[in-house]
Write a structure and sequence with these properties.
- It is a single chain.
- This protein is mostly helical and 326 residues long.
- Helix content is 65%, strand content 0%.
- Helix 12 packs across helix 13.
- The two termini are 42 Å apart.
- The model has no long low-confidence stretch (mean pLDDT 81).
Length: 326
């Protein structure tokens, strides 16, 4: 709230504070770590029959209250990412252990939630002096087309089509015009675990070329071939293809799917410990809807941060407990 600038009013204006990105990332790391600890506690409990009310009461109340505030603020500004990520994470154990969704429920929920989130995405604006109600009403009831001269059926899928084009441009220009990076982009995302290290890496490896400052920037350059004030993002397939080509995409994604499937079976059998693999599974489960437009390695860095935070807090608590005991 103190560093985000006009973002809290639902605007994309570039007036956020210098510490804004670090503040939100630090908040998400602590929030995600705390929820995962609570989820593991619920999962290993001997209670095998909880309704939704009992499930909610199993969480630490101040944590749930803070999460609700965060989701509410995300809803007001039209930021769909936190809403999807934390909703999937928070209710994951409930649907894994206590309640099995039926196919019809999944289908109807997908249509309803998809429609709401599509409208919510349209409430984002570059104009600061418009209220949320005005933006939401305009997005929900406007008959004007954002992409065409007149409204057409299925226009909501245009945004999805624009996300797919990132891969089209990557396949077109690599390796025809630009060579594969052979892991340099993946290493750059891993180095970004250390604040500021990504820029140093870009200066050392890519001579400070802004086009190579992450796969999202490189894909944006491939599409426009000129400087623009926005990014087209990337995708999990394009991200891997830029480094390792088609063979890398097939091998890495199959290996990733296999690892997730193995741990899913462990969870089904109740054989779950709170460790790196638990955080890895929960991270990619919560990002299941977002991951296709992201990167595997980018989310992997968050796991490292969460492990460090949990280890640090646990060490501090243990030391204080030992001192009090003595």
């Amino acid at each position: 709230l103190l560093t985000a600038g006009s973002f809290v009013f639902g605007a994309y204006a570039r007036d956020a504070g210098v510490l804004s990105n670090y503040a939100i990332r630090l908040f998400n790391i602590f929030m995600f770590s705390s929820i995962c600890i609570e989820l593991h506690k619920i999962f290993i409990s001997e209670k095998h029959d909880l309704n939704i009310r009992q499930y909610l009461k199993s969480f630490y109340f101040p944590l749930v209250f803070l999460l609700c505030i965060h989701i509410f603020m995300s809803f007001l500004v039209g930021d769909r990412g936190p809403i999807l990520t934390y909703s999937i994470l928070f209710f994951s154990v409930f649907f894994i252990k206590y309640y099995k969704l039926k196919l019809l429920q999944v289908f109807l929920s997908t249509i309803f939630i998809g429609a709401i989130l599509s409208i919510l995405g349209e409430t984002r604006t570059r104009v600061v002096d418009t209220s949320f109600v005005e933006r939401f009403s305009s997005a929900a009831f406007s008959e004007e087309s954002q992409y065409f001269t007149e409204p057409i059926p299925g226009e909501d899928f245009v945004e999805l089509a624009l996300s797919v084009r990132t891969l089209n441009y990557v396949v077109r220009d690599v390796p025809e015009e630009f060579d594969y990076q052979y892991g340099l982009f993946q290493l750059q995302q891993l180095v970004a675990i250390v604040p500021g290290a990504s820029r140093v890496y870009n200066n050392l490896v890519f001579d400070g070329d802004p086009r190579y400052d992450g796969t999202a920037n490189f894909v944006t350059y491939l599409i426009h071939r000129t400087e623009v004030d926005y990014g087209d993002g990337t995708s999990v397939v394009a991200d891997i293809y830029l480094d390792f080509g088609l063979i890398g995409v097939i091998f890495i994604l199959f290996a990733f799917g296999r690892i997730m499937a193995i741990y899913e079976l462990r969870m089904k059998n109740g054989n779950v410990e709170f460790n790196f693999y638990f955080l890895l599974f929960m991270t990619y489960l919560s990002k299941a809807l977002y991951l296709p437009r992201s990167s595997i390695m980018l989310e992997f860095s968050n796991i490292i941060f969460c492990l460090f935070v949990i280890w640090s807090v646990n060490s501090i608590v243990k030391r204080k407990f030992i001192r009090l005991k003595n």
